[in-house]
Amino acid sequence: MSTTEPSAAPWLVVVDPQRIFADPSSKWASPYFDQVMERIALLGAHVGPERTLVTRWLPTADRAGSWGGYFEAWPFADVPAEDPLYDLVGPAQRLSSRPSIDEPTLGKWGAQLEEIVGKHPHLLLTGVSTDCCVLTTALAAADAGAHVDVVTDACAPSTGENGAKALEVMGLFGPQVSLTTSAEALREPAAA
């Protein structure tokens, strides 16, 4: 856990637990998705639905910039935001008492998330994929002053190798970003 522990109870942030990352037929499916969701469910029960936030990536970015090339490279993902590909998986739909935080960006730290958790929160960061949306969320949140604990075994990488590289990078940002496990996070006091 963080070496400088924040005083407030942590918020569990579950990054993008969507069908596009879970469905084995998707080009973006993580082979670790199901086992990670089991750990996320335990963490969600521990912190409670009032302190759990779930995000979704939606393909709504302006195509005039670099997103144009992105969607040219990944045309299967260039469908309307209402497409079932972007639905939350069943277990994720029950994690939070709040609506999902939907963003057109890889990183999910922004005004919507900060409005709920405050300026300097303690985040338990989980989700998919370790080497993309989790990584960019962790670094942006830390830059904004959040205490970020990346729950390593509750993050689903695109591949084991890519996940290890992403964790190595995030580990360079201590003490703002710490690497922890679900077992360690579950030993911390739950929200009051």
Describe this structure in words.
One of its GO terms (molecular function) is hydrolase activity. The chain is 36% helix and 18% strand. The chain is α/β, with parallel strands linked by helices and 192 residues long. It has one domain: Rossmann fold (3-Layer(aba) Sandwich), CATH 3.40.50. Helix 6 (130-143) links the parallel strand 4 (122-128) and strand 5 (147-156). Helix 6 packs parallel to helix 7 (160-171).
Flag low-confidence runs: 1-5
Largest sheet: 6 strands, parallel
**What form results from the Cα inertia axes?**
globular
- CATH homologous superfamily identity: Isochorismatase-like
Short account of what is shown:
The protein has 192 residues and is α/β, with parallel strands linked by helices. It is 36% helix and 18% strand.
Key features of this structure:
about 190 residues, alpha/beta, Rossmann fold, six-stranded parallel beta sheet, 8 helices, about 35% helix, globular, Isochorismatase-like_hydrls, Isochorismatase-like_dom, Nicotinamidase, Isochorismatase-like_sf, hydrolase activity
Helix/strand layout:
Layout (H helix, E strand, L loop, with lengths): L10 E5 L3 H4 L10 H15 L4 E6 L8 H8 L16 H4 L7 E3 L7 H7 L4 E7 L1 H14 L3 E10 L3 H12 L5 E4 L1 H6 L5
Parallel strand pairs: 1-2, 1-4, 2-3, 4-5, 5-6
